[in-house]
Task: inverse folding
């Protein structure tokens, strides 16, 4: 990529892909410059150091998490759309959850904008601004938890080994004393089937939103 065509967005996007492919530890100014075919100095026009680069990745990847549905849509629909967008981008980019824990995310413009959008919707639901911030934090960490706990084997396990991983998991759980752990032994049978991630994530988002809606309704009771 020629230096004159190297935009801040392009650098952040390539850094994001590098992290997805090789892990967060691989994302350094020197390694990124190598991947882009430029000198490290060319990147310092956009990011002065690795901390700024990491923050730039967060700002770039969260750009699509926004309340941009029709203004006439009810607040639960708009808020759910934001949560769905966040979960989707986390599924696409496994390094995002770690990044959100490791950078000063409040300094990322897209994160602040998304937070402000969420607070607007939540105050419309009846929460005061402090409660709204608590709920927004709950949804953020709930989304991170959903992605971290998604079913099937860890991402470090090659896909061709997934069936064997599930078999070993089932056998280990079936060996538990049934008189002490009857439900875990029963749950072991679920490992005979391939997981349904779409059902899992839809269910998880339903669960998160149900909690917010229930508390919002109690405010107006």
Result:
């Amino acid at each position: 990529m020629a230096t004159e065509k190297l935009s801040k967005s392009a650098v952040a996007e390539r850094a994001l892909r590098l992290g997805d492919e090789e892990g967060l530890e691989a994302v350094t100014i020197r390694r990124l410059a190598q991947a882009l075919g430029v000198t490290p100095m060319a990147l310092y026009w956009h990011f002065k150091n690795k901390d700024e680069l990491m923050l730039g990745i967060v700002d770039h990847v969260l750009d699509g998490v926004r309340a941009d549905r029709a203004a006439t849509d009810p607040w639960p629909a708009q808020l759910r759309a934001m949560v769905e967008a966040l979960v989707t981008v986390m599924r696409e980019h496994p390094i995002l959850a770690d990044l959100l824990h490791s950078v000063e995310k409040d300094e990322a413009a897209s994160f602040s904008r998304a937070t402000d959008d969420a607070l607007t919707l939540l105050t419309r639901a009846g929460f005061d601004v402090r409660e709204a911030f608590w709920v927004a934090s709950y949804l953020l960490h709930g989304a991170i938890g959903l992605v971290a706990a998604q079913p099937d084997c860890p991402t470090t396990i090659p896909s061709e080994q997934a069936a064997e991983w599930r078999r070993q998991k089932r056998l280990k759980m079936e060996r538990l004393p049934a008189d002490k752990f009857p439900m875990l032994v029963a749950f072991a049978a679920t490992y005979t089937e391939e997981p349904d991630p779409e059902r899992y994530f839809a269910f998880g988002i339903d669960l998160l939103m149900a909690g917010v809606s229930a508390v919002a309704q109690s405010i107006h009771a």
About this structure: The chain has a mean pLDDT of 89. DSSP finds eleven helices and no strands in the chain. The CA atoms of residues 137 and 214 lie 17 Å apart.
